[in-house]
Amino acid sequence: MRVGNGFDVHKLVVGRPLILGGVAVPFEMGLEGHSDADVLSHAITDALLGAAALGDIGVWFPPGDPTWANASSLDFVRAAIVALAEREYRVVNVDSVIICERPKLSGFFGEMRSRLAGVMRVSPDQVSVKATTSEGLGFIGRGEAIAAQAVVLIEQGG
Asked: Residue 67 burial (CB < 10 Å; 0-12/13-18/19+)?
């Protein structure tokens, strides 16, 4: 068994869709980034790669590489799963949290869990997605950004 953790944060901007866990969330702003800037998928990707000591998302998907311009971050998760499978690792579970003041996300957790689980080839009950605020503190509290953290447990064989 191996554990990995991941973290990501992106600035909120006008004129982009808000994508979290592969789900389009209705909101007046979206996340700025080279890909779709899905902080939840990025944090999970980093956790998966880290658990297997395979580097990080920036090494695998460099932000300046035109291949990844506007890419779905679910493709990053998918590539990490393929890399783990090549080394005979599989996901046991994922626990994640999105940190933002707005929008309210609880109505989207089921769809996020389902999409992420499908890409990771696991059951939705192996994927936890939660949200919290930063109690109005810092750049997240001011509504300038959204962040996400993820912890994954993987095992070899099985």
From this structure: exposed
